[in-house]
Amino acid sequence: MRSSIQEDQEGGRNDGWTVGFASSSLFRPLMYALLISFLVLFYFYPLAAILRLSFFPEGQLSLEPLTALFRTSRYLRILWFTVWQAALSTLLTVALALPACYVFARYDFPGKSVIRALTTVPFVLPTMVVSLAFTAFLGPRGLLNAALMQILRLEQPPLELQHTVFIILLAHVFYNYTLVLRIVGEYWANLSSQLEEAARMLGAGRWRAIREITLPLLLPSIGAAALLVFVFDFTSFGVILVLGGPRFATLEVAIYRQTVHYLNLPLAAALSVVQILFTFVLMAVYTRLQAARSLPVELRSRQATQRRPQGWREKLLVVGNVMLMLLMLVLPLLALVQRSLTLGGSLSFGYYRALFSNPRGSAFYVPPVTAVRNSVTFALATVAISVALGLVAASLLERRGHGSSSRRWDGGTDRGDGSWLRAAWGRLRGGLDPILMLPLGTSAVTLGLGYIVALDEPPLDLRTSPLLVILAHTLVALPFVVRSVLPALRSIQPQLREAAAVMGASRWLVWREVDLPIVARAVIVGAVFAFTVSMGEFGATSLIARPERPTMPVAIFRFLGRPGTINYGQALAMSTLLMLVCTAGFLAIERFRVGGREEF
Amino acid sequence: MPPLLEVRDLNKAYPDGWTLKDVSFAVEEREVFGLLGPSGCGKTTLLRLIAGLEMPDRGQIVLRGRDVTRMAPHRRGFGLMFQEYALFPHKDVAGNVAFGLRMAGLDRATTEARVAETLTLVGLQGFGQRDVSQLSGGERQRVALARSLAPEPRLLMLDEPLGALDRTLRERLMDELPEILHESGVTVITVTHDQEEAFAISDRVALLRAGEIVQSGSPQALYRNPDSTWVARFLGLTNLVNARVVGSHRVETSLGILEVQGTGRALDRDGLEAQLLIRPEAARMSDAGPNRLELQVVDRSFRGMHWQLDARHESGVVLNFTFSAGVDLPASGETFGLSLNPKALTLLRNDDGHGKREGD
Questions:
Q1: Which chain A residues touch B131 with a CB distance below 8 Å?
Q2: Candidates A201, A214, A218, A308, partner chain B, best to mutate (most B CBs within 10 A)
Q3: In B, what residues contact A, Cβ < 8 A?
Q4: Which of A182, A286, A560, B61 has CB atoms 3.0–4.6 Å from A227's, for a disulfide?
């Protein structure tokens, strides 16, 4: 280690300006240690605890919990349902989003950027909000049924979608539509339309050209998008819990029920192991596809590939897709707001007022509005920790890129003894990136379970500490922060720094004048991401939050567990509030995002 | 027999105000027809209309007497080589060249033979298995050419075929391209903003200005007889002075009374106002002969094959001339006499202001 540090100092002198401000002496290894210990303590240790519980339930190796899963068909059925609902949801999402991808990639029309921003809103919404929005839209007391009952003069709601698989599928489409639109649409937009035209000039019909040229070129990005959607649908939790009702369970829901309802932790742990196995394999494939996506196609600027729609056919295509989008993505949210404001058939803030009272026998020991305070407190703490850690991680990752490029320039820095240490150090840093992304692929319920199992006894007994929730949120938010800051750091070209240096700026001045302004915006984006993620987190929180300290999503879920219009109404009201917070956060992100591609 | 392709009164207007106006021309079988004009003049749009990638507002595209204006692009049997080549990145060189043959439904053996044959024609034997991303600029250009030639299109359109290449490569391909085109016997419409390129490749050239054809003819005819000042300037003929006809073949200019024998506008109308074009090769170093001028050397530069000379007349007009390399020229600042060959002087219609718009 010592010698590798020395080696790096030497490299530092050689590298000159490519060495960032924070990389001298011991600082870098120290940051590295900090980051790794955080991940080990609050990610790997809890996961290991799940494995231990699953494989060593009584202190010695036993496959009993795992084999118990396969002894009856019950858990196989759950696994099967998890897979097929995810597959079907993904298929539906891709099928519905692809035409919109085409429209957004090839046409320019008024309001396009606003509509694009709107379609992203569902993705940042907490699962509780989405679930409530769908009950408000399609549920028995939902907007659609209410309207149909009035128009057709019916006594009973005609549509019975609640607690069916259809409403689950629709909610999943709602959630992940924008992922496909962003990933495939952006790639498509930069794909030269001349390729298709070239095929047509060589005798291919419209469809043949799409099939032979465009589709093969899009396939990696469609695959990447579909995989990501599949992972999200596979680990779907809140949506299934609320919209599916007791009849439906994914692995995630089964883990939750085993933990909370039956207190069967070994079984929950065994289910988690299956879950982890699946998601890790999927994420590995996703990373592969990401790499394939970035190869040799020449990308064009959008101006070159987009035009106004001409003729009624093209206009109909554009208008039709935009209408479908608005219908699918905006209507449920409007329904949520409308229902939350309708009490006894008229406009009222009654549900919102009820949030401030604490009647006897309610779902809480405290007025529900304290959930808002809890959520905000947790979120602010999450922002503080995750931004600090995220900056550390991003600057470590960014150094890696510059190190390799500067080595290309001066060639012979890899000489002499200690070079193998340097190589090992480099490999360690190389592994950091995927490790940091792991929490993104780990289901939140698994994480929560891990915390319950691992952090409930000395030396780390955090069971009663509010820190537990904050740590879980930080872990979920960290990849978002890193992915927001890293591209900005990488976008600062060495030439920029060199230019400033040539003009006589000191190293510190260079950092302040060049790096800081660019990074500051990205940090704001990362912070807002962390804030909204924390506000909306439900999976882990539902397991680890103390009953007297509920967050907003937890409060919403508890309202739903109680009978009566007023409880449902309060759930609607709180969901609306949560939606407004997250939408505001999202608008801030859009506002501050430094130009350039997202890395999701 | 009707010409292979006829374009009749083609019109196209864009929302941003840009238009293509009443464009008409005909292309004969096996002819190489060049469309030449500055960037933004509508060349590429014209190609896209002929290709069927866009629809005209008015006018017809007629193939061997048959109207194909509304026909889908892939049924026309035309080829188009895009300016940036648009090679398929997910196919190798052979896969690119074979694409059109596959669309035509040729069997595998025929396709393979034809691919090899076409690659040989463009000088890329053995390149079939290469990845297109590994090719140099010149190789990509050749693959694009081979790909559009392979299905033997009735008409091949080239959009700035040499535009994306560096100078040396362009020079070489300017020699090779006409050879390849003639050897394959294909009818060609080529589009470029580069006069040298258009002249080198084309049998006949049409000059396009702001969506209108202003003059067409063989390269030699165009260069010898530009029929307006805009055409003259575009072709690099910049010695233009105001002139008034004062008698048979005589004009009055700020350089004095000059005798004009070049073909051009009728000279029989006294008082006619026009522009006099003095070709750069018009001057002879001699004190005798018609149209004598006294000039002062502003600048001279030796270009290897010839001299380039800028000289000022006492009226302030600066003229430039070319002289063969063997001539001894006076030094900068010296005054000297020369005579202008009346056959190299032409009267032109002044249309510099006409049809001018933003973006020209």
A1: 296
A2: A201
A3: 15, 51, 53, 72-74, 77-80, 82, 84, 86-90, 99-100, 103-104, 131-133, 147-148, 151
A4: A286
**Nearest CA to CA, how far is A312 from chain B (Å)?**
14
Closest Cα in chain A, distance from residue B13 (Å): 12
Domain containing residue A491 = 1-52+369-594
CB contact under 8 A, A197 and B90: no
Same domain, B234 and B185: no
Tokens of A452: 């319950």
Q: Are A473 and A537 in contact (CB under 8 A)?
A: yes
Q: Is A58 exposed, middle or buried (0-12, 13-18, 19+ CB in 10 A)?
A: exposed
Q: Domain total for chain B? A: 2
Q: What's the domain range around B89?
A: 5-229
CATH number at A290 reads 1.10.3720.10
Query: Which residues, 6 or more positions from B317, have their beta carbon under 8 angstroms from its beta carbon?
Result: B241, B254, B255
Question: In this structure, are B204 and B171 located in the same domain?
Answer: yes
Interchain CB distance below 8 Å, A202 and B89 = no
**CA A549, CA A58: separation in Å to the nearest integer?**
33
User: Quick one: tokens of B197?
Assistant: 């390129």
Assigned domain for A66 exists: no
CB neighbour list of residue B113: distance below 8 Å, 6 or more residues apart: none
Packed helices B93-103 and B137-149: angle between N→C axes, nearest 10 degrees? 20
Q: Same domain, yes or no, for A183 and A212?
A: yes
Q: Are residues B66 and B187 in the same domain?
A: yes
pLDDT digits (tens, 9 = 90+) for B308-337: 999 999 999 999 999 988 888 888 889 989
List residues of A whose CB lies inside 8 A of any B CB. Answer: 192, 194-195, 197-206, 208-209, 212-213, 216-217, 296-298, 308
Does the distance separating the beta carbons of B103 and A201 come in below 8 Å?
no
Give this complex's ipTM. Answer: 0.83
Last residue of a domain, one of B229, B261, B276: B229
**Is B357 within the bounds of a domain?**
no
Three-state secondary structure call for residue A465: coil
Own/partner pairs for B49-55, CB < 8 Å, 24+ apart?
A: B49/B10, B49/B12, B49/B20, B50/B5, B50/B7, B50/B78, B50/B155, B50/B157, B50/B189, B51/A197, B51/A201, B51/B76, B51/B78, B51/B80, B51/B157, B52/B76, B52/B78, B53/A197, B53/A200, B53/A201, B53/B80, B54/B12
Beta carbons of B99 and A296 less than 8 Å apart:
no
CA–CA min distance B282, chain A (Å): 46
Six token digits for residue B308: 């380039």
What is the CATH number for B253? 2.40.50.140
CA-based nearest residue to B279, from B204, B331, B216, B342: B342
Do residues B86 and B234 both lie within one domain? no
Q: What are the tokens at A249?
A: 């369970």
One domain for residues A566 and A513: yes
Phi, psi of B341 (to 5 degrees): -65, 120
What's the pLDDT tens digit per position in B50-87? 999 988 999 999 999 999 999 999 999 999 999 889 99
What is d(CA A93, CA B34) in angstroms, rounded to the nearest whole number? 49
pLDDT tens string A416-459: 445 555 666 666 666 676 677 777 767 888 889 999 888 877 66
Same structural domain, A312 and A395: no
Can you list the pairs that A315-324 forms with residues at least 24 positions away whose Cβ atoms lie under 8 Å? Answer: A317/A99, A317/A103, A318/A103, A318/A107, A318/A109, A321/A99, A321/A100, A321/A103, A322/A103, A322/A109, A322/A115, A324/A96, A324/A100
Shared domain for A291 and A391, answered yes or no, is no
Q: What are phi and psi of A351, to 5 degrees?
A: -65, -40
Task: State the CATH number of the domain containing residue B161.
Answer: 3.40.50.300
Q: pTM here?
A: 0.78
Residue count of chain A, please give it.
600
